[in-house]
Design a protein that fits this description.
Elements: E1 6-9, H1 15-26, E2 30-34, H2 39-53, E3 57-60, H3 67-81, E4 86-89, H4 104-132, E5 135-140, H5 153-173, E6 178-185, H6 191-204, H7 208-216, H8 228-239, E7 250-253
Parallel strand pairs: 1-2, 1-4, 2-3, 4-5, 5-6, 6-7
Bound molecules: nicotinamide-adenine-dinucleotide.
């Protein structure tokens, strides 16, 4: 479906982003991977995608908390592929603490990676999309773009910010064949969720098992974690031609969480 198109998926060395990169490659897109991790494992992922699906895969290790590194990543990708047809802003970080104890540097990093990085990738990807008259921008936001949870001040603020950016840019480019949407997953079992369990247990004074049962899955009427494959399939659909009329949408995929 995406043969001849190029997708850049930020934070695709792990979790949801890796699943999205796999589905887009499986449907024929060339892929630029990004994110941190073990160099050998990233190399193996890129080689596997290229071999399994016959697509070109590149890796860029840009730190998305740094504007200069984002600019360099986008320049490299645009010089090799001419256009990033499908931009998936997925990289994200989380930190759990009461707001009056929230480390100031961590606030800055979360806002930089979860919000400002998308501003930079979008502004830099748009000119080539406009020249082609086709583009897809998909922001992996969160149910926390729609509702809040205590102790996640920076994350919730950044994700609500992404929802606003999504609607604004969607209006600006609507007549040019470009869509921008936000996918809002509930809890997906990935390293990001696993890592916040001990801190949430500490902040709420409960056990780690209680965090899973009484905090995470309590929010989701399905009582199941959302899967990486489900989020990746929705993302791939939004990238398709059939999704041309979906733009500026903030789309929950959260087991009913935000219906409550
Ligand atoms: P993850 O920790 O498995 O993956 C995060 C990715 O982002 C990794 O590839 C990591 O290397 C990359 N990354 C982090 N900081 C970076 C930086 N400074 N520069 C470049 N890359 C960086 O997490 P995940 O659960 O797959 O999360 C992916 C996205 O989905 C995030 O935006 C997250 O907020 C969102 N999300 C996750 C859940 C969930 O339950 N897991 C729910 C809703 C939304």
């Amino acid at each position: 479906m995406f043969k001849g198109k190029t997708a850049l998926v930020t934070g695709s060395t792990s979790g949801i982003g890796r699943g999205i990169a796999e589905q887009l490659a499986a449907q024929g897109a060339n892929v630029v991977l990004n994110g941190f991790g073990d160099a050998a494992q990233i190399e193996a992922l890129g080689s596997k995608l290229a071999a399994d699906y016959g697509v070109t895969v590149r890796y860029d290790g840009a730190d998305l908390s740094r504007q200069d590194q984002i600019e360099a990543m986008m320049a490299r990708a645009l010089s090799e592929f001419a256009c990033i047809d499908i931009l998936v802003n997925n990289a994200g970080v989380q930190f759990v603490a009461p707001i009056d104890e929230f480390p100031v540097d961590t606030w800055k990093t979360i806002l930089a990676v979860n919000l400002s990085a998308s501003f930079h990738t979008v502004r830099l990807a748009l000119p080539a999309m406009k020249a082609k008259g086709w583009g897809r921008i998909i922001n992996i936001a969160s149910a926390h773009a729609l509702v809040a949870s205590p102790f996640k001040g920076a994350y919730v603020a950044a994700k609500h910010g992404i929802a606003g950016l999504t609607k604004t840019v969607a209006l600006e480019v609507a007549a040019q064949g470009i869509t921008m949407n936000a996918v809002c997953p509930g809890y997906v079992w990935t390293p990001l969720v696993e890592k916040q369990i001990p801190d949430t247990a500490k902040a709420r004074g409960i056990t780690e098992q209680q965090v899973i049962d009484d905090v995470l899955l309590k929010a989701q009427p399905t009582k199941k974690f959302v899967t990486i494959e489900q989020v990746a399939a929705l993302t791939a659909f939004l990238a398709s031609d059939l999704a041309a009329s979906i733009t500026g949408a903030i789309i929950p995929i959260d087991g009913g969480w935000t219906a409550q």
